[in-house]
Amino acid sequence: EEFLSFKICTKPIISDWKNRPKIRIRLTLLGSSAIGKTVLAQCLKYGRWPQTMTLPTSTIGSDILFYYLDKLFRNEYVVAIQLNDPPGQEQFESVTNHFFRECHGALLLADTTRLETLDRLEKFWYPKLEKFGMDHFQSVLVCTKMDLFEKEDIKYRELFLQRSQQFAFAHQMPIVNISAYRGDNIEYLFKQLIIRIMENDILINDLINQAIYSQKLNIIQQKVIPDIHISEKQKSKFTCCN
């Protein structure tokens, strides 16, 4: 219960935690172009989209942001979050495939003002995630731009809500409605997905094993590298004398 009160932080990891094993969770934003993926990624940092910042253009490369949780998991493990924001255009599919294979949690975004973005999730993004992704990934349907959706015609709203509920039910994932403009449900969204990942026994056990292995490897490297450095230094001294 204490761990579940965690917050997602952008500041550097607490210095006392630097030698602790690190669980590395990779989250990926998936969906069509111009649906708000990059805005959502930045909102996790600011809480809402800063009014002084201009809206970004479509992502061409792949943005990667890093965060960590301010609570230790099981009072032992640091939890680091890698948030991947790949491009949504079809011509960059080969780039996106890489993020499918290393995705513990997928945020599937649909623009509530464009029904075709939900169609694209159903016909392209989710099938690709199932095909190339991990066996036990967790996912959530994210309906963006709720502040604009509320101004849409009531028949359109009913249709979108019905379709989104059908999609989420078919794939056993929750729905979270967000507004980057107002800051609605931004941190809640990420916390829910992180909790789902950590409640998945197969995923969390794999992540813990990787954390322990990485820590042991770092310890070995810290011991070996100084010895190699000294050895090379001595070798150069002998070479000079000769």
Automatic annotation (TrEMBL):
**GO MF annotation list:** GTP binding; GTPase activity
Q: Which SMART domains match?
A: RAB, RAS
Keywords of this entry: GTP-binding, Nucleotide-binding
Q: Does the keyword Nucleotide-binding apply?
A: yes
Q: Which SUPFAM superfamilies match?
A: P-loop containing nucleoside triphosphate hydrolases (SSF52540)
InterPro entries in the cross-refs = P-loop_NTPase (IPR027417), Rab (IPR050227), Small_GTPase (IPR001806)
TM segment ranges: none
Q: What is this protein called?
A: Rab-like protein
Q: Which organism is it from?
A: Adineta steineri
Q: What is the lineage of its organism?
A: Eukaryota, Metazoa, Spiralia, Gnathifera, Rotifera
